[in-house]
Design goal:
heterodimer, A: mainly alpha, Helix Hairpins, B: Four Helix Bundle (Hemerythrin (Met), subunit A), 6 helices, 70% helix, NADH_UbQ_OxRdtase_chain4L/K (chain A), EC 7.1.1.- (chain A), quinone (chain A), NAD (chain A)
Chain lengths: 106, 166
C-alpha cells in the first residue's frame, strides 16, 4: 500500500512525476515541451530532497532544505538559458520542432 | 497519510501528465503551472514554508512566464501537421516506464529502512537566513555568480543578430 509511511508516499509521487517528465522530454517534438519535461524532472528531485529533509534524522541541520533552494536557483538559470537557446534556434531555422533541426546531421 | 496529501499528489500528477500530453503549447504551459502549484503546496505540507514560497515565486512567477514568452515568440501555438509526438515515442515511453519501475521498486524495497514518523522540525526563516550567510555563504556566492552569468548568457544567446548569408 502506498500509504505505508509518509516518506514512501512522497518518494513515489516524486518518482511518478520524474517518469512523466522523462516521458515528455523523450516523446515530444517541440523543444519547449522538452524543457518543460526537464523542469518537471528537476522539481521531482526537489520534492525528494524536501521529503528527506523533513523525515531525516537531523532536520535542524537544514541540509536538504538548502540543497532544494540552491537547486531551484540553478533550475531557474537553466530555464532562462534553455529558452534563450530555443528562441535563437527558432530564429536560425524558423522552427522549434526537434525532428526538423537536422543541420548537424552528417 | 492525510487526505490532503492524496489531493495534492493527484493535482500535481494530473498537471504534470496534462502538460506533456496536451496538444496546444499554451495549454501545456497552463497545466505545468498547476503542477508547480501542487508541488509548492506539497512543500508546504512538508513544513518547508520557505521552499514552498520560493517555488511559487521562482516557478509560477518567473519560469512559467518565460515559457509563455518562448511559446509566443516561436509561434508554438500553431499545431504541427505531423502530430505533437516524435516518431520514436514508444521507445521514450518504454524508457520512462522502466525508470519509474526501478525507482518505485527501490522505494518500496526500502520502506522498512526509512523512518516512520518524525516530529515537525522547528525551523524558521530566520534560521535559514542565518545558515545562508553563515555555513552556506560560499554556495550562495557561487549561485549569485551563476545567476549573473546565466542572465548575461541568455541575453547574448537570444539577442537579435545581423542576418548572415546562408
Amino acid at each position: 500500500m502506498i500509504g505505508a509511511t509518509p516518506l514512501a508516499g512522497y518518494l513515489l509521487v516524486a518518482a511518478l512525476l520524474f517518469a512523466i517528465g522523462l516521458a515528455g522530454a523523450l516523446t515530444r517534438r517541440n523543444a519547449i515541451l522538452v524543457l518543460i519535461g526537464i523542469e518537471l524532472m528537476l522539481n521531482a528531485a526537489n520534492l525528494n530532497l524536501i521529503a528527506f529533509w523533513r523525515y531525516g534524522p537531523h532536520p535542524e541541520a537544514l541540509t536538504g532544505m538548502m540543497f532544494a533552494i540552491f537547486s531551484i536557483a540553478v533550475a531557474a538559470a537553466e530555464a532562462a538559458v534553455g529558452l534563450g537557446l530555443v528562441i535563437s534556434i527558432y530564429r536560425h531555422t524558423n522552427t522549434a520542432e526537434l525532428d526538423k533541426i537536422s543541420r548537424m546531421k552528417g | 497519510m492525510s487526505p490532503i496529501f492524496y489531493i495534492l499528489a493527484v493535482l500535481t500528477l494530473a498537471g504534470g501528465l496534462a502538460s506533456v500530453t496536451l496538444k496546444h503549447l499554451v495549454h501545456c504551459a497552463l497545466a505545468v503551472t498547476v503542477a508547480f502549484a501542487g508541488l509548492a503546496l506539497l512543500f508546504l505540507q512538508l513544513d518547508a514554508q520557505f521552499a514552498g514560497f520560493a517555488q511559487i515565486l521562482v516557478y509560477i512567477g518567473a519560469v512559467v512566464i518565460l515559457i509563455v514568452f518562448a511559446i509566443l515568440l516561436t509561434r508554438g501555438s500553431d499545431l504541427p501537421k505531423e502530430g505533437v509526438f516524435s516518431k520514436t515515442w514508444p521507445v521514450g515511453l518504454l524508457i520512462a516506464a522502466a525508470v519509474f519501475a526501478v525507482l518505485g521498486w527501490a522505494v518500496l524495497q526500502s520502506v522498512r529502512a526509512v523512518p516512520q514518523q518524525a516530529a515537525v522540525p522547528a525551523v524558521t526563516v530566520r534560521d535559514i537566513g542565518i545558515a545562508l550567510v553563515g555555513r552556506y555563504v560560499l554556495p550562495l556566492e557561487i549561485v549569485a555568480l551563476l545567476l549573473t552569468a546565466a542572465t548575461i548568457g541568455a541575453v547574448i544567446v537570444a539577442m537579435h543578430e545581423k542576418v548572415r548569408s546562408r
